């Protein structure tokens, strides 16, 4: 499924058209299109191996495309690397930080490379770096390294910032501080391109989402658009019932009971052993049908929960639930 993107407020800062990248002759990215705008957060989501990191690395100038075009602020990231470097911030998932240097020294060194850097003291305070500023990078925890890498990516006041898993390994307090900073970047007109495996992070931060699988964008739109669009088997619903009970119950019988109770609009599946998900118009009659179905099966539910489809539900519906 592909949702037409809305007309964004800011100009395009990153434009990818027909991107192709191969490793050893094997296509990893195939004719991928992606746009990110100034003053907006664009999330790029996908399973491991889907091609999202390769796509972002082509935008960062770290890899050379085998086909298509990539433009960042109107420039070619490979050919115009020297011109782009002062205007772009990059946070790599592995940090790319010198392991023997102290955290504070790394941040001051990076900031000194820019003509108009952010205040190092302010960045350190916002991200709690002062507490480990004299600790060498190799001795930092995973979350501390992430905070330092983010500070380095923001030090130059870039017009475009690429953030790869920015809150991975962080505690809730650090994660909230990172989210607040990203919201501020958007307000300041920065184009933020974010890759993450945390669906709640994408749902909270992103103005626009691209879901990538097998080297292509398979869905794109705002979070509300993706949540409201067709679910599995053509169902269009933002509501669902999730039941945990014993495995092997008759999901088709539940779908029939729900259709009879509220109208023929339900899709029911056993998404994993003993977990049944029913998508449709949730109301008291639907819940009564669920309890009656359980009673007919001679079993009790461990839990019954209701709520809207989440971005994670959409992601799994589109990319599958099997391990890669």
Helix content: 25-40%
**Number of strand segments:** 13
How many individual helices?
11
The CATH homologous superfamily of the largest domain corresponds to P-loop containing nucleotide triphosphate hydrolases
Q: What is the CA–CA distance across the termini?
A: 21 Å
- Classified by CATH, the class of the largest domain is Alpha Beta
Structure classification:
alpha/beta
CATH-derived architecture of the largest domain? 3-Layer(aba) Sandwich
Main sheet, how many strands, which sense, barrel?
A: 6 strands, mixed
Assess the beta-strand content as a share of residues.
25-35%
Subcellular location: Cell membrane
GO molecular function, one term: ATP binding
Protein name: ABC transporter ATP-binding protein
InterPro entries: AAA+_ATPase (IPR003593), ABC_transporter-like_ATP-bd (IPR003439), ABC_transporter-like_CS (IPR017871), ABC_transporter_ATP-binding (IPR050763), P-loop_NTPase (IPR027417)
Care to give the gist of this entry?
The chain is α/β, with parallel strands linked by helices and 324 residues long.
Structure description:
The strands form three sheets. This protein has a six-stranded mixed β-sheet, with helices on both faces. Helix 3 packs parallel to helix 5 (142-154) and helix 9 (251-262) packs antiparallel against helix 10 (284-296). It is elongated. It starts with 11 loop residues before the first strand and ends in a 5-residue tail after the last helix. The chain has two domains: 12-228, P-loop containing nucleotide triphosphate hydrolases (Rossmann fold); 235-308, Alpha-Beta Plaits (2-Layer Sandwich), CATH 3.30.70. The chain contains eleven helices and 13 strands. Strand 11 (267-272) and strand 12 form a beta hairpin. The protein has 324 residues and is α/β, with parallel strands linked by helices.
